[in-house]
Input
Amino acid sequence: MNKNPHIAVVGATGAVGIEMIKTLEKRHFPVGKLTLLASARSVGKKLKFKGEDITVTELTKDSFKGIDIALFSAGGGISKEFAPLAVKAGCVVVDNSSAFRQDENVPLVVPEINASDVKAHQGIIANPNCTTAITLMALFPLHKAFTVKRIFASSYQAVSGTGAKAIEELERQVDQIVTKQPVTKEVYPHQIAFNVLPHVDSFLATGYTKEEMKMENEGRKIMHHPNFRASVTCARVPVYRSHSIAVSAEFEKPVTVEAAREVLKKAPGLDLVDEPENKRYPMPLFTSEKYNCEVGRLRQDCAFDNGLAFWVSGDQLLKGAALNAIQIAELLIARGAL
Output
């Protein structure tokens, strides 16, 4: 097995693709060679990796010859079309889209939670939804200790979760409002600046959105907990980066704030920031560009018998996407699962 694998980033010029390249470098991933792939309109762009310019090439069905690991972040349609071709060419795909998450032959992995699932891959491993991943970083350690039954949650999702154009839209709208210009919108159905949209992803017949159901469906698979239930409202907020989630969780075993704190203090990839008396709690401002998620505002949930309320915040471009994908690639090498 190649200890210095040839890595491809598919969707290299997108918000997550750029974070993937930065994260490979920051974590000293043993890249033998890096290939950057994107659509025809991005061909010829140069992106820096370890001080060198790497030219973006066009994604085609023949792009994967000789590549060991392909990190996909170009949307579900691209993944469905090209991931099977990459696998045929002998490549392992780590896919950031929702295309394969519910496929029973595809492991859905958060390395701090279910690392051993990596070995069961048949060429494709799925990266979870960003809001789900960030929530589970705090919820799973509590589940291991107290066995979660159900959660009620509300998300506060940053615009970068929608992509680079959404970041530009928020910047433009803030500028338009400050300079008293008419507000223009392209990405979101309503103005996002100084507003909150209770609408992330498309609506289902039940009235929930697809994003809201990912917490239950993906949570069950990642935690190996088929009876887990989650009622979620996802909202888009005028924040550039980092998602936050307010969670009320009900457990089978009695839970105290003190016991929960001890569990969360030891949880990998998570920092306990819970000093309300000093106005210290997790915020997007302080979790942006950080690998670890943060949890705080811990309190006994007054609406449940065995309940705990908490607030978790994390960088959805990192733990919710690029970092998680690269941690999976690190696992593939460490466990000889390529």
